[in-house]
Amino acid sequence: MKAKKTTVAAKRGKKTALRLPYTAEKIHPMAFIHERAYAYGDLAMGEFSSLWPGVVARADMNAFIIGNYVNIQDNSTLHSDSSRGITIGDYTLIGHNAMIHGCTIGKAVLIGIGSIVLDDAVIGDGAMITAGCMVRGGTKIPPRALVTPDGSSIKIYEKKAKTVYTVAGSLEYVELAKRMQKGIYAPFTREEEEVFFAKAKEIVAKLFA
């Protein structure tokens, strides 16, 4: 008696949509997340905002709201605990290797390279936190103040920030994101930089009218 020939059909699993580890529906379609940035959790990003290589934005315990024209530069970290999230206003520039933890950062703010801003700190609109500053938890920085390191503390110079330069830098990063996606790597021309600066002046005038 011949044995019955049997065949085993391969089981086909249901196709599932790629699940991103963050709230993709809250990311503006014109925002840019570099393929080597790491975004997790309840994250919202506005128009022309960007996360660059090595950035970690881990909103696993509370919501992060990143405004329009914001750039978070290489190797910076954003995190918070259950008590508070992070809010970053429009045109703000977060420099390389910054640490942002559970704080509120206003519009057109510079957070300089390697600076640390801790829980419940509030950075006023247009302020400049220069490279290497430690802004301790609960610190309130006035609008348009210039902040510099002072040993283990900081010095605050009210109304000394050059906010136009911050906004010009933010506009440059919008163009850098577009270039990155097109594979264009070249310096900006003097004419392009002049356009950024002129637009920045107009934006600052409106923000602080």
Short description:
This protein has 209 residues and is an alpha/beta fold. The protein has helices at 163-182, 190-207; strands at residues 32-33, 38-45, 50-51, 56-66, 71-72, 77-79, 86-88, 93-94, 99-101, 104-105, 110-111, 116-117, 122-123, 128-129, 134-135, 140-141, 146-150, 153-157.
Describe it.
With 209 residues, the protein is of the alpha/beta class. It folds into 2 domains: 26-157, Hexapeptide repeat proteins (UDP N-Acetylglucosamine Acyltransferase, domain 1); 163-207, no CATH class. It is built from 2 helices and 18 strands. The protein has helices at residues 163-182, 190-207; strands spanning 32-33, 38-45, 50-51, 56-66, 71-72, 77-79, 86-88, 93-94, 99-101, 104-105, 110-111, 116-117, 122-123, 128-129, 134-135, 140-141, 146-150, 153-157. The strands form 2 sheets. Strands 2, 4, 6, 7, 9, 10, 12, 13, 15 and 16 form a 10-stranded parallel beta sheet that branches. An 8-stranded mixed beta sheet has the order 1-3-5-8-11-14-17-18. A hairpin with a 2-residue loop joins strand 17 and strand 18. Helix 1 (163-182) crosses helix 2 (190-207). The protein is globular, with a radius of gyration of 22 Å.
Q: What is the strand and helix layout of this fold?
A:
Elements: E1 32-33, E2 38-45, E3 50-51, E4 56-66, E5 71-72, E6 77-79, E7 86-88, E8 93-94, E9 99-101, E10 104-105, E11 110-111, E12 116-117, E13 122-123, E14 128-129, E15 134-135, E16 140-141, E17 146-150, E18 153-157, H1 163-182, H2 190-207
Parallel strand pairs: 1-3, 2-4, 3-5, 4-6, 4-7, 5-8, 6-9, 7-10, 8-11, 9-12, 10-13, 11-14, 12-15, 13-16, 14-17
Antiparallel strand pairs: 17-18
Helix pairs in contact: 1-2
